[in-house]
Amino acid sequence: MLEFAVLGPLEIRRDGRAVPIAGPRRRALLAVLLLNEGQVVSLDRLIDAVWGHAAPASARAQVQSLVHGLRRALGEDGAGTPLIETRAPGYVLSVAGTASFDLAEFREHVERGRAAARAGETGTAAEAYRRALGLWRGPALEDIGTAFSDAVAARLEEDRLAVLEERLEADLALGRHGELVPELVPLTADHPLRERLRAQYMLALYRCGRQADALAVYARGRELLDDELGVRPGEELRRVHAAILAADPGLSLAGPVAGEPAEAPPGPVVRPPARAAAPVRGRTGAASLVLGLLLVLLPVAVRGDASAPGAPGTPAPERGPSQQVLGPAWVGEPAAPVAPELFGVTLNSSSGAMPSFRVGAVRLWDSRTRWTNVEPRRGEFDWEILDRLVAGAGEERLPVLYTMGGTPGWAAPDAPRMAYDDGSRTGPPADPADWDEYVRQVAERYRGRIDAYELWNTANSPRFYTGDPQTLAALTERAARIIKAADPSATVVCPSMGELWDEAPRRFLADFAAAGGYRHCDAAGVKLHQRNEGDAPETIVELGALIDRTFHQAGSHLPLWNTGTTYRLAADSTLGEEQAVDQAVRFYLVGLYLRYPRMYFYSWGGRRLPLVLQAEGGPPTRAALAVEELQRWLAGARIRSCGHGTAVGLPAAVWECRFLVRGEHGAQGEEAAIRWTDHGEAVMTAGPDAYRVDHLDGTTTSLAPGGALRIGERPVLVRHRAS
Hints:
723 residues, alpha/beta
């Protein structure tokens, strides 16, 4: 019997004895195949995972040799078939039925635990979580040491911590608070910014009669969050703090432990998700005593604009429970048009082909249009690819955002290389006159055909820019002046900033602002993404609040364009088809909620991403068709407001944006709302004038006045008759 283990150093055992796998590349290759067990992994993806961007010309031949060695070491299954099979366009490792795999066992135990928790079997859930956590022998894949394995290890560690939090929550519901305090002391020390752990520690202390210690744990957490991130504690932690201050009886085990009162209150009912929630958001059965019950006892505070009092990220004194403010996050009066340009994509293609499904704008970056591609030698310009792409966009009447950056080696010979095969450098040009000439040539050639210019990509990351913010501000001023002289109608977008969950990248943004960088632009570029793989898209709203606060403190109030995501995206796990549909649509809805005029999905044309809209040369995916249907809903629409949860009279997990849309016969001015949940399902009462629900697959469902309305993770459009 073979045993595979990745939850610690990579190990393979046969009948209890170690199977040696010699060589770091062979071990790295095996890790990639294991982590994609049962799925075909292409040669290109294997090469990327083993060598990254430093792959030798012989990489394909080396992969074949590495696979041959692995096959000899691992042998065959019971039917005489090699465990590693060749299957176009690469290889597949299948262990189901022939071997054990600790990661698969971990996930099975977790699923059993969550199912038990949903059924109210808290003790069974806690035991299943313990079995799952007992499989860990140390940091996952700690002996592999590639960029791919490091990214996967970080995600698996996040999964482990999420399950640990669920186990702690179950133990709290079982009255084991006395046992948990010694365990939570080092956990909160090792993970000081994990607010759920801190809330659990506070509750355990409170139940042990240590109210003052629980409040001190909160005070320390608040101080750390302010020092490290410049933010206040989140809603969840603040609710626990407020409940402890008030000695709320809901914190006692004497209350119901199944997550709901014995007699359900009138109004909307939130049902648990049909599938397991994303790891960092798990709320399960009886284990949701505190945080679930507090959702009933302490209404959710509304998210608002960064400039509004009480908005996320706005400093405020701690004075007990937050003021309860009801109403939407924002209301626009008059209702503003939903611009088609909101629905953008970044092109990962140099062919000139455009998406065959409906989009509103395109961005050029991973399309071999960087500075080094356009000007491979000083004064010699190669316009072939850029001409082709601009012409293709023009034929489809799609506005183009051209992203500058990627300094040629001749312009910055001493700068580090970017992670691309074209020799692009991360440094600013040694002679700013070279930058001026490049910008001038592009702006003059594409006057009236390129609508907007992003002046650098992810400028606060050393992967893309290694100069200082003052130099970048000077380059921004020079480029803006040249572009406006050549094409006054063009939009200048300041260099995009990414990784903004972290303090250091936000500090670079602030330094760029202090150097005057934002004074010369029409908009600012930022990168919106979830903090962790598996988080709901709506968690981006928290990042939006951090970004708003950073710009507000810097004294800049430009429109914000979302020009991409995080660099690590390509290493994230592939989404299932249903989840891909949900997340693709909600990506753009989050943009509406945040009031961003442009949201560029990253990216179109390639297939090596967790969520693909369309591979070039192939048909649109279901996710792409759902995005297209969303655009049909909103064609000619005007947005009135967006809100979330109890603040707008909805279940806590439900999000909503309200519109004036075209009616049944094309008439303007019919009211409608797009609603969805960030997890699970909610059932609520339809309004008396609601008559129809439109679904993303193009079907519709009639509604009876006052009938039940079921809302899930897939957004729906609820139409209302004019009163």
